[in-house]
Amino acid sequence: MRAFAREVRIADHLRERLAELIRAEMRDPRIGMISVNDVRVSRDLSIADVYVSALDCKTTEGQRALEDVLNHAAGFLRTQIARGNTMRTTPKLRFHFDEVWARGAQLDALIDRAREADRARAGAQSDPQAEETP
């Protein structure tokens, strides 16, 4: 249980530090408003998978370009994290585009369509009964 708690603490620290570093230190114009959604650290603490999203990346090409830029800057970011870190080693960073916002919007649309279908079905069932009673 203790190892799990350490992995979580390290992942939370990396998420906060990376969000700060990307916002303050990255000067690449291809990087816009980025959100660091999640960090998952391997059991041996050697690799950290970083999941990011951006509002301005609508296409698959834009998402891949963002991943490429961040993975190219991973060494710089890792060095910056290591400077203020007391761990023996700093995990290698691997960036992935997190499509949680797109999936959330798709789910919202599906829920809205299901509600509308339920309302239409309920309205269709109540109309014939209303016509028969008068």
List its salient traits.
single chain; about 130 residues; alpha+beta; GMP Synthetase, Chain A, domain 3; 3-stranded mixed β-sheet; 4 helices
Tally of structural domains: 2
Oligomer: single chain
**CATH class division of the largest domain:** Alpha Beta
The amount of helix comes to 55-70%
Shape: elongated
Report the portion of residues in β strands. 15-25%
The radius of gyration over CA amounts to 23 Å
- What is the typical, i.e. mean, pLDDT? 85
Number of helical regions: 4
Ends apart, CA distance between termini: 69 Å
Order of helices and strands: HEEHHEH
Q: So, CATH architecture of the largest domain? A: 2-Layer Sandwich
CATH superfamily of the largest domain: K homology (KH) domain
> Can you tell me the CATH topology of the largest domain?
GMP Synthetase, Chain A, domain 3
Read across the widest sheet, the strand sequence of neighbours is: 1-2-3
Low-confidence parts lasting 5 or more residues at pLDDT below 50?
A: none
Question: Pairing-aware structural class of the strands and helices?
Answer: alpha+beta
Q: Biggest sheet, in brief?
A: 3 strands, mixed
- The total count of strands amounts to 3
